[in-house]
Design a protein that fits this description.
Blueprint (H helix, E strand, L loop, with lengths): L21 H4 L11 H14 L6 H9 L5 E10 L31 E9 L5 E7 L5 H16 L4 E3 L7 H7 L3 E3 L7 H9 L6 E2 L5 E10 L2 E10 H30 L6 H11 L6 E14 L5 E13 L1 H11 L3
Parallel strand pairs: 1-4, 4-5
Antiparallel strand pairs: 1-2, 2-3, 6-7, 7-8, 9-10
Helix pairs in contact: 4-5
């Protein structure tokens, strides 16, 4: 397969089929040169006219290959594009709005469009797809997508989705659909559970390197089963990254303290205030044993004057660091 085909310009589409046994794969009389960007464009136009949601290929595949429908997985992504894509004042068919939004492919400088995809848990077969505006809200789109999917496929199994699903409004829309999602740590109860979970209460699971803690939690008037997962591999990786982050933070703090210590301050209170403000943004270090030193010196014209300088010790915020270490391998 041609490397980079997905992101290549459409005029390179035909190159993918060069050297392939097209007649064997597609049908007698079909030549590679027939499969070009013009043909692709015409097919895409026809699909749009029909309506992607009306194409029943997925249903046929489910039936022919007996794909199970006990579970389905939903996710979304964004795709950046190059060009201005100016908004026209002329009324015209505009299926989606290409604009700036949250970039999942890490190109916030470019406009984009979004895509929602639902696949079967059995084999990961794509079943339902929908394109959306570049600034579409995942939390608002996800319940609508699942509801539409449920109607089209008569789905009554388990829907697996990311944390965007986890809102009380979404649960109301989903109704009786069973769901599985990650609980975001922005929720106080989840953050508290992860922070205060005791390792001796975790149970080993079949997957090597993982343990879990199961709790029953009533959230949003719905009784839920929460699992806190502990990953040894993730812990080792995250602790290494965290250690590097602390070392980097320490170097920044040392540089700031040296710069402050070299400053001539008018009075002792000013020196204390400056020292307390110094590490306002630091999460892992603090200044302790803060002192001021009075220094007498002479100006260029020979007059004596007094100024103050700060002396302090850099200490690690033990509790914050330990809390972070305790949470690194939990999710």
């Amino acid at each position: 397969m041609q490397s980079g085909l997905v992101s290549a310009p459409l005029y390179l589409f035909a190159r993918f089929f060069e050297g392939k046994a097209i007649e064997h794969l597609i049908g007698v009389g079909v030549k590679p040169e027939y499969l070009n960007d013009d043909k692709l464009g015409r097919v895409m136009d026809e699909l749009y006219e029909i309506g992607i949601g009306e194409v029943e290929i997925a249903l046929s595949v489910l039936k022919k290959y007996q794909i199970k429908r006990e579970t389905a997985h939903r996710d979304s992504s964004s795709f950046h594009v190059h060009g201005e894509y100016k908004t026209s004042s002329v009324v015209e068919p505009r299926p989606i709005k290409i604009t700036h939004g949250y970039s999942r492919d890490h190109r916030p400088d470019l406009k984009q469009y979004t895509m929602q995809l639902i696949c079967s848990g059995d084999g990961g077969i794509p079943l339902w797809i929908k394109m959306g505006d570049g600034n579409a809200s995942d939390q608002k789109e996800i319940p609508l997508a699942i509801t539409e999917f449920k109607k089209s496929f008569e789905f009554s199994g388990l829907m697996v989705a990311d944390a965007a699903l986890y809102t009380q409004d979404n649960w109301q829309i989903l109704g009786d659909i069973k769901w599985l999602s990650r609980v975001p740590l922005t929720i106080k109860a989840a953050k508290k559970l992860v922070t205060e979970a005791k390792t001796e209460n975790f149970i080993s699971c079949e997957q090597a390197g993982y343990r879990y803690l199961e709790v029953t939690q009533n959230y949003g008037d719905i009784e839920q089963r929460w699992l806190v997962i502990e990953s040894q591999e993730r812990r080792e990786s995250d602790l290494k990254k965290f250690s590097d982050k602390i070392d980097k933070d320490l170097r920044v703090v040392q540089k700031k303290l040296k710069a402050l210590s070299d400053r001539e301050l008018a009075c002792a209170p000013d020196a204390i205030v400056a020292a307390k403000k110094l590490l306002k943004k630091s999460l892992y270090h603090e200044l302790t044993d803060i002192k001021t030193q009075s220094i007498s010196t002479k100006s260029e014209n020979g007059e004596s004057y007094c100024h103050y300088q700060v002396q302090a010790t850099i200490s690690q915020c033990i509790q914050q660091v330990q809390d972070k270490k305790n949470r690194d391998d939990l999710f």
